[in-house]
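4.2 Preliminary Data

To establish feasibility before requesting continued support, the project team ran the inverse folding procedure on a target of 199 residues. The structure was first converted into the token representation described in Section 3, and no sequence information of any kind was made available to the design step. The complete token record follows.
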């Protein structure tokens, strides 16, 4: 039987320039050193089937799965997380990339891959760690869950894109240094990318 895990919660407040600030999100879990496989019971901190770190576990099975894992440090050919623009189309709203909730990142990513040229979502979609071809750019809420467990993802320490569009010119991003969640990051800004996958 697994040891019980501590639950990580955050306090959300409004900071300067309208950014949302997440605080009190220190990770209560530590990496368990266990590897889980699809169809088995996994815990936050386990190594996932794609070789990443499990950072989210739903209470029950969802239509998208039950767990989220983040690509491991060095996933980008051994280097740091890459920088990319959200989309080269900064003038119009993109259909299919509005989802913010947990479970919507994969659909957002597919919409971006189909409608944008060289973008953050293409980097995430092209990753095939662990032989898995279903990696994607996390939605806003999936990125928040990754931030809550940021101690498990050592290199994640700057501003990261989500796959969630906010309007024609902007998309959601999160600063892993201070917990600020930005709704209006300009789509052609160069921010960091970390793929995740659901199972």
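Position-by-position output of the design step:
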């Amino acid at each position: 039987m697994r040891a019980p895990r501590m639950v990580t919660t955050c306090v959300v407040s409004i900071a300067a320039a309208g950014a949302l600030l997440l605080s009190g999100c220190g990770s209560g879990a530590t990496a368990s050193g266990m590897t889980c496989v699809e169809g088995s019971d996994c815990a936050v901190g386990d190594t996932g089937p794609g070789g990443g770190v499990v950072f989210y576990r739903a209470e029950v099975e969802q239509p998208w799965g039950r767990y989220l894992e983040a690509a491991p440090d060095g996933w980008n050919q051994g280097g740091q997380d890459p920088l990319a623009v959200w989309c080269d189309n900064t003038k119009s709203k993109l259909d299919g990339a509005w989802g913010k909730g947990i479970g919507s990142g994969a659909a957002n990513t597919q919409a971006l891959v189909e409608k944008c040229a060289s973008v953050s979502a293409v980097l995430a979609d092209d990753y095939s760690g662990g032989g898995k071809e279903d990696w994607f750019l996390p939605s806003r809420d999936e990125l928040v869950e990754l931030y809550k467990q940021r101690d498990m993802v050592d290199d994640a320490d700057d501003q990261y894109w989500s796959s969630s569009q906010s309007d024609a010119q902007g998309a959601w991003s999160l600063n892993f240094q201070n917990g600020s969640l930005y709704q209006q990051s300009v789509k052609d800004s160069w921010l960091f990318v970390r793929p995740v996958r659901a199972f």
